[in-house]
Structure formats: structure tokens, C-alpha cells
Write a structure and sequence with these properties.
The chain contains seven helices and twelve strands. Helices cover 30% and strands 31% of the residues. It is globular.
């Protein structure tokens, strides 16, 4: 298993004293993820945490669930968040952290932004939650590159959390084809046993066009900075059909469920998945 997506169901515990709650919980979930990994492999986790120049083999989501008046959490409601791993060693350590007696096991108490929660359930089964799952790089690629059926000329994504990119030293909130597939290819080539050629970005830039979209801009405060990202759906259609390159694009689209798209996927931005039109 190279790829892992865990969905956690948690319930808030009573607060000792009222205080303002974060509007975005992605950084808190990411911190919890690193804490769990650090207990199993402190040196390797420190290297992942400190190296900002390369793609990180993890992502995290914000906390999802109902809010009461003023943004308060409902102590009788369940909330969810997600953690993913993009290579086998990290996936193994993350899964180990959910076993009985470990930091992220069901029944354990955790803190997010210094607020207490109880873990109710953890799953990696898509039958229990559509965002959960496991996969292998070779199997994921084979499903789209070795199939006898020709790949569809359309690739469509749903952007669940604000998604943005760095382009020409600026933040770009529009999911242009080159930016989307550059992001995915960079993560794939950083961790997969077999890399895709750089021409995949050229094909995406020159041969894909946005054919449908239903997007909205959404601000989010991440790491003390305001980011603007896009949420919604976007579809790309190949103007020039090429079986191999479209197979690569569909592989990368399936990879988005684990890797996320764009910048700041560690603290919850860029949560995305491929969908059928």
C-alpha cells in the first residue's frame, strides 16, 4: 500500500472555558498528524516537517461538521477530518497510529487547537466514507494506462476546499489546466516508483480547454495569512486526442483524492477528487 486516506469521526468534549474558535482547522489537524508520525519516527518526521522545498508526503483537511451560533461546536454532533499519506513508509506509520493504544486510535482523546475531542471512528474503507481509501501507484496507473478501453477525452474535478496555485510569484485561484496537472505531476514524480515525463504539463497546457465550470472564490485563513481559492467543479476536454497522455491525465486525476491539488494541501487547502461528468 503506497497511498492511504483515513477519515476520522470525532466528537467535541466540553470546553473548560469559552474562547473564540478557529474558522479553519486545517493547521490543527496537520499538527496532530505530525505529532502522531513523530512518535513513531521522530527523525524522519522532522525532515518532512522542516523541508518546505519539496512536496510533503502527507495532507490534512479542515474539521467538517455543523456550527452553532457564533461558530461554536455542537457537543452532541459528530465531526470529521481526513489525513492522507503519499508513500508506503508514511502510510504504514499513520495506519499504525490508529491501532489500539496508539495516539489516533478510536476512543482516544485528542486536541485540535488546544480543544479536546474524542475519536469515535477511523476508516480507510470507501464503503464507509467516500473520501477514505487505499491504493498503490502501479495499480492506479495500470487502471488508466493499460485498460483496453480508450480514456475519455474529458477530465472533471470537484474542488472541496479552497484551491489555489503559485504562478509567476503570485497566488492564482483559477484552476487552469497547466497549473492543476503540474501540481499533481510534481507530487506523483516525487513519490511514485515510476515518474511521468515532463511533457504531460505541455499536453495539459496546449491540448486541454476548460469546457465546463461551476466555481466560486472562497477566502480562508491559513498559517496567519489570507488565501483566496476556488471551490466547485471544473471539467477539461482534450482538443487533441492522445490515448497515452489522456491516460496519464486520468491517472493523475484519480491521484488527486490522496495528493490534493495546488498549494497549502498540508493544512487543508486543495482537497479534491476526480468525478464523472
Amino acid at each position: 500500500m503506497d497511498l492511504l486516506s483515513l477519515v476520522f469521526t470525532v466528537r467535541p468534549l466540553p470546553m473548560t472555558e469559552p474562547r473564540p474558535l478557529p474558522t479553519w482547522w486545517g493547521a490543527a489537524v496537520q499538527s496532530l498528524l505530525f505529532e502522531a508520525l513523530r512518535e513513531a519516527a521522530p527523525e524522519e518526521t522532522a525532515a518532512i516537517h522542516d523541508d518546505a522545498s519539496a512536496p510533503r508526503p502527507v495532507t490534512a483537511s479542515t474539521l467538517v461538521g455543523p456550527r452553532l451560533k457564533g461558530g461554536a461546536l455542537n457537543p452532541e454532533a459528530d465531526y470529521t477530518f481526513r489525513m492522507t499519506a503519499l508513500n508506503a513508509p508514511v502510510a504504514e506509520r499513520l495506519l499504525q497510529a490508529t491501532r489500539p493504544g496508539e495516539r489516533l486510535a478510536p476512543g482516544s482523546s485528542i486536541e485540535l487547537d488546544y480543544l479536546p475531542f474524542t475519536i469515535v471512528r477511523v476508516t480507510d474503507s470507501p464503503d464507509e466514507d467516500e473520501w477514505a481509501g487505499t491504493a498503490d501507484y502501479q495499480v492506479l496507473a495500470a487502471a488508466h494506462l493499460l485498460t483496453p478501453n480508450p480514456p475519455d477525452r474529458q477530465v472533471m474535478f470537484e474542488l472541496i476546499s479552497p484551491t489555489a496555485f503559485r504562478s509567476s510569484d503570485r497566488t492564482q485561484p483559477l484552476p487552469l489546466p497547466k497549473l492543476v496537472f503540474h501540481s499533481l505531476a510534481a507530487r506523483w514524480n516525487a513519490f511514485a516508483p515510476v515518474a511521468f515525463p515532463p511533457e504531460v504539463e505541455r499536453y495539459a497546457e496546449e491540448c486541454l480547454a476548460i469546457s465546463r465550470f461551476d466555481l466560486h472564490s472562497r477566502p480562508v485563513t491559513v498559517n496567519n495569512g489570507l488565501r483566496i481559492g476556488a471551490v466547485g467543479r471544473v471539467a477539461y476536454t482534450a482538443l487533441t486526442y492522445d490515448r497515452y497522455w489522456l491516460g496519464v491525465l486520468h491517472t493523475l486525476a484519480a491521484y488527486a483524492r490522496f495528493a490534493g491539488i495546488g498549494i497549502m494541501t498540508g493544512p487543508g487547502m486543495g482537497q479534491a477528487c476526480a468525478i464523472n461528468g
